[in-house]
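for the recovery benchmark. tokens below, seq after
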């Protein structure tokens, strides 16, 4: 029992913020939330005095390359431009043991700071080796295998369209629902620029057939819109809509440089965006035009 918290931020349907609130937990599940006086008679084997605390739901990290985010921290100076080529080369060279240890380090930091659910956008090479770390940490995970069928400006596994589709379907079938439902598997095409229209549409069919999700790295901006318009699309975001990719089960990562029409497109299709604001700030992108984030 978490007892008499100064504030409880419920994020429930009514968005209640309960002052002097208590929470009753049974077998790892939240059973009751309310004013402390309402739960005063509820007995518990363990009571946490939360009078000096604000209690929030667990945080969600919607885009974290868990296997290499920590080992590259502090390696690259800030003034050398993008380190992505070196980062991806390092990640592709990691062994099973190295990936397990770096994932465990990341999970320790996440849980310590209240993050209990995260999405790794396809960077984990050895999920079998890392499964024990996920289980021990008690977190919820969204995993997938990053796939491309076009050249990328940095080291990425490239497959034929058919092979990338088959690998994604097999990954979802193997992993989705493991750890008593705490692990979810999604399709993870790396980006619209590194995946053909045929691959993006095939993976959309895969996830809709299996009632799961799809995420990909996404960006826009004046030059990107000009490039897409030369190929007959208004913008990167509207290109995805024209393919039938966007929908309520799609999460766009970064979404740098989107304009009003693209925002309307995202809202219209029910897709979602996860903003990587620290990365945007580190790269000098920061708060965009008219205060848009990132």
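predicted aa per position
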């Amino acid at each position: 029992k978490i007892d008499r918290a100064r504030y409880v931020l419920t994020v429930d349907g009514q968005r209640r913020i309960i002052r002097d609130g208590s929470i009753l937990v049974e077998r790892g599940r939240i059973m009751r939330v309310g004013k402390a006086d309402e739960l005063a008679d509820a007995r518990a084997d363990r009571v946490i005095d939360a009078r000096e605390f604000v209690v929030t739901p667990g945080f969600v990290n919607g885009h974290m390359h868990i296997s290499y985010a920590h080992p590259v921290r502090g390696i690259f100076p800030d003034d050398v431009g993008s380190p992505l080529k070196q980062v991806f080369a390092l990640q592709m060279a990691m062994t099973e043991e190295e990936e397990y240890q770096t994932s465990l380090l990341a999970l320790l930091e996440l849980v310590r700071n209240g993050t209990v659910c995260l999405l790794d956008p396809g960077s984990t090479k050895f999920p079998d080796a890392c499964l024990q770390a996920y289980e021990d940490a008690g977190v919820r995970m969204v995993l997938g295998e990053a796939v491309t069928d076009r050249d990328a400006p940095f080291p990425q596994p490239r497959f034929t369209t058919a092979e990338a589709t088959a690998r994604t379907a097999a990954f979802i079938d193997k992993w989705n629902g493991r750890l008593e439902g705490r692990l979810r598997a999604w399709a993870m095409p790396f980006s619209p620029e590194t995946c053909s229209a045929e691959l993006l549409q095939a993976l959309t069919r895969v996830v809709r057939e299996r009632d799961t999700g799809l995420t990909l790295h996404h960006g826009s901006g004046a030059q990107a819109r000009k490039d897409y318009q030369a190929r007959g699309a208004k913008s990167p975001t509207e290109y995805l809509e024209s393919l039938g990719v966007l929908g309520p089960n799609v999460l766009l990562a970064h979404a740098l440089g989107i304009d009003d029409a693209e925002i309307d497109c995202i809202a219209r299709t029910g897709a979602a965006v996860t903003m990587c604001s620290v990365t945007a700030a580190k790269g000098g992108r920061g708060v965009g035009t008219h205060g848009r984030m990132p």
